[in-house]
Amino acid sequence: MKSDEIILGIETSCDETAAAIVKNGTELLSNVVASQIESHKRFGGVVPEIASRHHVEQITIVIEEAMDQAGVTFEDLSAIAVTEGPGLVGALLVGVNSAKALALAHDIPLIAVHHIAGHIYANRLMTPMEFPLLSLVVSGGHTELIYMKEHGSYEVIGETRDDAAGEAYDKVARTLKLPYPGGPHIDKMAQEGSSSIELPRAWLEPDSLDFSFSGLKSAVINTLHNAKQRGEEINPNDLAASFQESVIDVLVEKTYRAAEAYEVKQVVVAGGVAANKGLRARLTERFDGTGIQLAIPPLWLCTDNAAMIAAAGSIEYNKGKRATMKLNGNPGLDLEAF
Ligand code: KG4
Ligand code: ZN
User: Fold this and answer.
1) How far apart are CA 20 and CA 324, in angstroms?
2) Is residue 276 lining ligand 1, measured as CB closer than 6 Å?
3) pLDDT at residue 145, rounded to an integer
4) CA–CA gap between residue 48 and residue 105 (Å, rounded)
5) 2 — pLDDT class (breaks 50, 70, 90)
6) Which domain holds residue 25?
């Protein structure tokens, strides 16, 4: 009987090859992330085939490194948790097949994890989770408000109808000729600009908790285009600040409305865009003094990593959920059905 629960997490859904070891669901023993960003930069986005090839090259090294840093062997592992989806299918397959091979060779239980559940559970490595809980998930592929009445239960109460918040950041960044991924660059420029340019906010129907960012993205493109036609200069920092303020106004207000309507005890923020300085500051301000606890992970836990997959895997493991050798990468995996 193993006294401690030790889980190896594996994540390869997009452009980070990652492995991590988590003890008893909350204690991080190691966290190794090999980023491919440099290889995708010159294409202005993630190229799926290049991503798969990098994962194949990196996965064994990254897993060994995570095991070494944590000082654990395969005999110590209680389970191997891997991202099943959503993500790029060829990329997911590398992680899933590695996890299956190791689980089979060493006779270790295999756990399938939803990538977004992972982003949410990154928070548990820092702060105990209090239910009912609301999670604002803002990443490159997702913008969702998720209600959780208990561990491992997910109800999507709001989501984007078009672009994800991160996607909007990346597209606007491309228009401004900034390198990929654009989010961090816009964030930085926004700190130096003033939000003096008028841009729309998509509130949608009065009670809607859904989001829409494609109109805002087009408005930014039009603003630049019109200025160019008139021969006028637009300060890119001001445009970044105005765009960022529009995104944040809607994200913060809808999160607050949802938190009140669903009477949650805690709001946890998750996903790559949670690294945004402006968003972090405005959420902190909005929830201050409301009695609703706000949790935002440190920057290194916001973007893709495997610690979050091991942490979410621990919940599934304790619920008795096990994946079989039939596990496959599932690019469209549904969180509510998970
Ligand atoms: O969660 P993540 O690492 O990958 C997905 O699962 O999508 O999120 C990546 C996204 C990218 O769109 C990136 O531009 C955005 O997160 N991002 C940011 C910031 N840091 C990363 N967006 C705004 N501000 C940031 N500081
Ligand atoms: Zn992600």
Assistant:
1) 21
2) yes
3) 98
4) 29
5) low
6) 6-121+302-318
Residues 20 and 113 in one domain: yes
Which tokens is 24 given? 């008893």
Q: Rounded to the nearest whole angstrom, what is the distance from the C-alpha of residue 273 to the centroid of ligand 2?
A: 10
Whether residues 102 and 170 share a domain: the answer is no
Ligand 1 mutation target, pool 303, 304, 309, most atoms within 8 A of CB: 303
**Residue 273: CB within 6 Å of ligand 1?**
yes
pLDDT tens sequence across 111-134: 999 999 999 999 999 999 999 999
Instruction: List, in sequence order, the alpha helices (H) in the chain.
Output: 37-41, 48-70, 89-106, 115-121, 165-175, 183-192, 214-229, 236-261, 277-287, 299-302, 307-318
User: How far does the centroid of ligand 1 lie from the alpha carbon of residue 231, in Å?
Assistant: 33
Q: Which amino acid is at 171?
A: K
Same domain, 66 and 20: yes
Residue 272 and residue 143 in one domain: yes
Is residue 137 one of the residues assigned to a domain?
yes
Using CA positions, which residue lies closest to atom 7 of ligand 1?
Answer: 140
- The number of distinct structural domains making up the chain is 2
pLDDT at 58: 94
Summarised one tens digit per residue, pLDDT across range 196-249 is 999 999 999 989 999 999 999 999 999 999 999 999 999 999 999 999 999 999
CATH assignment at residue 237: 3.30.420.40
Residues 149 and 291 in one domain: yes
297 Cβ closer than 6 Å to some ligand 1 atom: no
Is residue 291 located within the same domain as residue 270? yes
Residues 311 and 162 in one domain: no
252 and 137 assigned to the same domain: yes
Residue 238: helix, strand or coil by DSSP? helix
